[in-house]
Amino acid sequence: MVRITVCIGQYEHRSEDGTTWSRHPRELPDRHAPVVRGDLDPGQLPARSPKGHWDFATLLPPGFGVAVGHEPVNATTEVADIFITSDGGRHWVKRDAKPRLPFFRRASWPAEQFASLVLPSPDLVFLAWEDPWIFEGALSHVICSKDRGESWRYHRMSYTNPYLNWDPAGRLLALNADYYLESLDGGNIWKKSALHIEWPEGYDRKRVPLIRHLAFTTAGVGYGLIVHWAPGAPGDPPPPVGLVTTTDSGRRWSHLHVFEGPSGCDINERHVLDLQVL
How many structural domains comprise the chain? Predict the structure, then answer.
């Protein structure tokens, strides 16, 4: 049995069977608040300039953690930064990542803002980002550190979702509209496979969005959130949000439940959607 919590806007929905749900009010975090994983108080993060923001922070039980944020460097450009802790968040050290990029990818670095942080262990750190909005046909990119942030290697992800996930089988995943990428060697080689979503009867399938919120309980079994965008420009009312599950490592997904979309907030903003599976 698993306990599932789906957060959508000002409410969270709880279930222990995926069928019966209870709804409870919640305090929606500020959109600039970082996404924190692990036993870390955001107040432990280093001070930033008034215009800088923290984006992600993860602390593992041994006390090793990574925090990333971004700072403006001029009126139109920002730059991301990386901090490491080895004592549970009491002290932080800034890491200057200098990955070796192919010549034709150097315009993509430095990253303006990281889109996701994956920290499976103290010896394996992944950060992903996407080209700035000014690029046509933007690409996604990954840097990986296997020595606690001392050095970093670059890997290109191609035209794909920069929101990374890690499952108990040791796979690094990025799910897209109709396919997903997986890597079994720390992001060096990516395999592309078809992604199949079983939609509830009556829903328009012309536009399938990305699954950005994933939670795997055991190898091959996972849950995710998917927004039911209608074809064309988003509008009112907000699109419904589906809770989907997989039992074959992410190849096929079926809907467990469909929730009403959030009211009064942008569904794309940080913290508006969240998923917890225990």
Answer: 1
As given in the structure block, the two tokens for residue 67 are 């925090």
Backbone angles phi, psi at 104, to 5 degrees: -80, 0
Residue type at 17? D
List the pLDDT tens digit at each of the 278 positions of the chain: 789 999 999 999 999 999 999 999 999 999 899 999 999 999 999 999 999 999 999 999 989 999 999 999 988 889 999 999 999 999 999 999 989 887 766 667 899 999 999 999 999 999 999 887 666 667 889 999 999 999 999 988 776 788 899 988 899 998 887 788 899 988 888 899 988 888 888 776 555 566 888 998 887 799 999 988 776 655 667 888 999 999 988 889 999 999 999 988 888 899 999 999 98
d(CA 76, CA 68): 20
Q: How far is CA 77 from the centre of its chain?
A: 22
CA-nearest of 133, 52, 130, 46 to 95 is 46
pTM of the model: 0.91
Pairing of strands 252-259, 196-198: parallel
- 85 found inside a domain: no
Which residue segment(s) compose the domain that 257 sits in? 1-30+195-278
Is 276 within a domain? yes
